Amino acid sequence: MSLSDLMQLIPAIEIGKKYLWREKPTEDACPRCGNVTGQAVNVPEIVTVSQLLLGDQAECESCHLKRPFTEGWYGVEDKYGNRWAVPYTQLEEIQEESR
To answer: Which residue in 27, 26, 69, 21 sits closest to 43, CA to CA?
Structure first.
């Protein structure tokens, strides 16, 4: 499989668009303490994507190590104004948004 074939498997995430966020543990573990980001939540939430986080700093919830976000992480905001860092793998297109 070529690189362009692989790139087509990654969905395009649009800034300002609403997505369904299904939070679950990520594959991203802190290199210092091993803490895994995210938790399993049974209720999906509708969020608006506000920015691509490439180059911004992530902070470990356990040991507070700061390191840059890797490609594919987005800043999202929920209906209450709470902001979260979310990997693209947890964002699903909402059917109403695609019409």
So the answer is: 21
Q: Of 24, 83, 21, whose CA–CA distance to 50 is shortest?
A: 83
Q: What is the pLDDT of residues 31-88, one digit of tens each?
A: 999 998 877 777 789 999 999 998 899 999 899 999 998 888 999 999 999 999 999 9
Cα gap 57→30, rounded to integer Å: 13
Which H helix or E strand runs over 87?
A: strand 83-87
- Locus of tokens 């594919």: 72
Domain-wise residue ranges, the chain: 3-98
Pairing verdict, β 91-93 and 83-87: unpaired
pTM value is 0.80
